[in-house]
Each structure stands twice: as C-alpha cells, then as structure tokens.
Amino acid sequence: MDDRRIPLTKHPLQAVNNNMENTMATSQSDKKPIGRTILFGALTAAFYTGFFTYGDNIAAHFAQGSFWAAGPIATVFAVSYLHGEFASNLWSVLGISAIRKDARKTVEATKRPAQRPVLNA
Questions:
Q1: Which of 38, 73, 114, 119 counts the most CB atoms within 10 A of its CB?
Q2: Is the separation of the CB atoms in 33 and 93 below 8 Å?
Q3: Cβ atoms of 32 and 92 closer than 8 Å
C-alpha cells in the first residue's frame, strides 16, 4: 500500500476543521523577516563602507588584469544581490507588497466589417 494517499473525509465538518487547522498554522508561521533585514542591511552597509574606504586599493587590484578583471563584475553582482535582499525584506517588514492580479482582463476582438468592393471605372 502507498502511504501517500489522500485521506477521505466522511463528514463535511471534518474537512472544514482540517482546512481551518491549515489556515491557522500558516498564519502563525508568517513572520516578518526582521533578522534578515538587519543582516542584509548590515552587509550592504559594510560593502559600501569597505569600497569607499579602500576604493584606491581595490581599483589597483582590479586594474592588474588576468583574473582580477572579473572583480568589478563580481562586485556589482554581490552588491546588487545584497541590496536587493535588504530592500525586499524591508518592504516585507513594513507590510508593503505588490498587488497580485489573479486573472488578466482580456478584451475580446471585435469583428471587423468586410471591406466593400470599389469599382475603378
């Protein structure tokens, strides 16, 4: 027998209770990512502070060529990721989220009238 079968409910209220338990569990587990916001904010601030403080040394290393030439690109990706995570978590902590539309509104195409024949006499 396969243990992954879906259990059948015999009473309609039993299904309602199961749904309510799932809803309660998910609402309690929806925590605001305050710790992640502080972590990524601190990492972003540390990156910016390090780059502004040691900018000349970092630029000299990146100018050496070879594998150092990939440094600016890697730096941009790292800062972009850290700042993006910080900003995303900050919006979540503030309770601001994007509006999600479930279905797009589609406009039905109107049937065009047939062109009338023109007599060129």
A1: 38
A2: yes
A3: yes
3-state secondary structure of 103: coil
**Nearest residue to 89 via CA among 54, 38, 45, 53:** 38
Note the pTM of the prediction, 2 decimals.
0.57
Residue type, 101: K
| pLDDT tens-digit map of 36-88 | 999 999 999 999 999 999 999 999 999 998 899 999 999 999 999 999 999 99
The Cα 89–Cα 116 span in angstroms is 61
- 47 and 54 Cβ atoms separated by less than 8 Å: no
CA–CA gap between residue 55 and residue 64 (Å, rounded): 15
Distance CA 68, CA 77 (A): 15
Q: DSSP strand E in 1-121: where?
A: none
